[in-house]
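Much of our argument rests on the idea that a fold can be written as discrete symbols. The amino acid sequence and the backbone structure tokens for this protein are reproduced below:

___
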Amino acid sequence: MTTVREATFALLEAYGMTTVFGNPGSTELPMFRDFPDHFRYVLGLQESVVLAMADGYAQASRNAALVNLHSSAGTGHALGNLFTAYKNQTPLVVTAGQQARSILPYEPFLFAQQATEFPQPFVKWACEPARAEDVPAAIARAYHVAMEPPWGPTFVSVPIDDWDRECDPIPARRMFARNPGDPAALAEVAAALAKAERPVFVVGAGVGRDGAWDQVIALAERHRAGVWVAPLSSQCSFPENHPLFRGFLTAGREAIVESLAGHDLILVLGGPMSLYHVEGFGPHVPEGAALWFIGDNPVHAAWLPEGNAVVANCRLALETLLAGPAPLRRGPPPPLAPLPRLDGSVMTDAYLLQQIAALRPAGSIIVEEAASSRGAMHDRLPIIERDTFYTTASGGLGYGLPAAIGTALARTSDKVIAVIGDGASMYAIQGLHAAAQLGTPVSFVIIKNGRYEALHSFGRKFGMQSLPGTQLPHLDFCALAEAQGVA
């Protein structure tokens, strides 16, 4: 017989989960008795930081990461970034400690009441095993559910006295779950593309997750279709210096319809086009336009307000479309006019982002959380290589700074540049301690405008000229960094 702990670590090794992100408390300590020498424990100074580091690591490595939280208190601290991981479709196995089974009837100090319900609905599956012997099987199931498309977080609550119990080891198994899409539906999409006179593509984060960068470029070039980025997309899906690139859709109904007007076929790939941030009215697509959606998330397909959907892996579906009938002869869309270069006579976020674009090494990765500078980034910092951009899909703050650290841990040969707003940085500024201790090659660039600028922009939409409590005076970011060991 082996212990629950030994059986669990054997599974983690088999699944490539030898890096553990956590901030442990008393109920988690027995898990780490005789911690394997070749495993790595990444400490974060607050649980939301821990979860975002794991999120960045999992996205960059394309494998589920293990997160270790402390009972209900630690899970509560992590919930904001658990919500982001859920929206990011990031595969995570989140574990949290529970008090000993023998004292649970007495509501002991630091126990987790309704442990599996607390993180819902932001986990795909949650379990507190009925027996200690079932913990390894629960971890295995959590891994496979996290890695089953659409990817996402799972949760396992483990009582403190389970780890030393004996159990039978369970073998690691593999699961293959990529959906190639319904052949008849994809044939219909291919035929519609071939007959369309003015097709246009809208690409979302699922293109990046599914590794379909080359296929999207090839299909767009074959059909001479312009390519827009879906609203608030969290990954890069098309080179923003390509002649067919059209720009970024705004998260508003009327703005989307206006941008896509004149097209007779809209092909949405890997993410929702109808993701709105403000109330809107009227049609969801331009008059006379047919819409098809292809992506691995059936929830996105289910709430598609107009058009038809194929639930499928983007790369496999696009390979099918590339073998479809030849398109009509079409001319390419007109090129976009280049913006004039800024001379730096005024220090603005646009100039800053222009200079980052000019000075970044090839292959460098941008991790961004600077909402009020997103427009300037779209204009001045084009993402031109695959898998080189990540941001939060949820809009919640506190993700970008620690996610950049996790990304750097997974992509050790690549330069990582974190572009973070001053307000956003303060949600997770203690993540700099982990960066210093781990020696991660991240450049943190804080865009300091002295207030929550995004709120002021929204306030103007509501006719509000002043907002209370949104100023950020007297923050010395260099001092905050140096105090944690970051130059």
Notes: The two ends are 50 Å apart (CA to CA).
